[in-house]
UniProtKB/TrEMBL annotation:
Function: Required for morphogenesis under gluconeogenic growth conditions.
Keywords tagged on the record: Cytoplasm
One Pfam family hit: CofD
Name this polypeptide is given: Putative gluconeogenesis factor
Subcellular location, record wording: Cytoplasm
Segments crossing the lipid bilayer: none
Similarity-based family: Belongs to the gluconeogenesis factor family.
Recorded superkingdom: Bacteria
Amino acid sequence: MKLKTYRIRKPKIVVIGGGTGLPVILKSLRNESAEISAVVTVADDGGSSGELRNSIDMAPPGDLRNVLAALSDMPKLYNDLFQYRFNQDDKFLANHTIGNLLIAALSEMRGSTYEAIQLLTNMMHVDGHVYPSSEEPLVLHAEFTDGTTAVGESSIAKDRKTIHRVYVTDKNNKTAEKASRKVVKAILEADMVVLGPGSLFTSILPNLVIKEIGDAVKETAAEVVYICNIMTQRGETEHFSDADHVRVLHEHLDAKFIDTVLVNTEKVPENYMDPEIYDEYLVQVVHDFNGLREEGCRVVSTDFLKLRNGGVFHDGEKVVEELFRIVFGAKI
């Protein structure tokens, strides 16, 4: 039974991440009574986003576009138009989406991707707040356990090396410290901060290693919840257990800041995933409940699985139902 009941006030929930996992949770959160703030990575350098950030001084728009679409109540036709991607054979427009181009145009008009996103939030009737994690594009760096390095989000997984740590730099190659306006305030005033689901090293950590965001997540009185990935990811989390995911997060911020971990225990059917579409995902994440307890986390383990079109996803409604149990039990 869904938890859509009368409440004294809406809980303030901040969701941090990027990639395809974040919109799944946000779509389900939008259907509940919550005050939502999404903090979205700006370290993407591939595809349409990468081309635009290299052409215009702007944060990459792709993840921001998907979050706006997930939280918008625009008619389906408008949303479909916003998300429309031109065909590969369309020469100059190949692979670009209408939404990415619109964000690029507004960023250039206003001189700020942050301002562009706030304008689109109003234009698209977005139910919540959407903030880029930084007000300038950032570059993601990885240091591997063999001492080598990689620069750029799209290049990190190519050699399938074990990642020691990641960090982000600004356009002056200085370590990124400053968050977008209102991000720190949203985290400190939240009832719950949700991390993920999403790629550990390229969607979640690029936000947390911005010093102001990492410090705020450690300082906040909010319940900090990590939604652990269902599958391991090629070149990022190969052979990782759920406890390994949490350990890496804690090591990057040098603190055990995660209060609760959501873990899927439902088995993915053998040979279900379509390897041609989802070639970066390998095997199901194994469980290490003793390791999670050693990291100081409460563990919620149940069936969060949703199978769709040859892919493995979190069931947004089940996840959000659990999040609301936690937030009302812990903070309100």
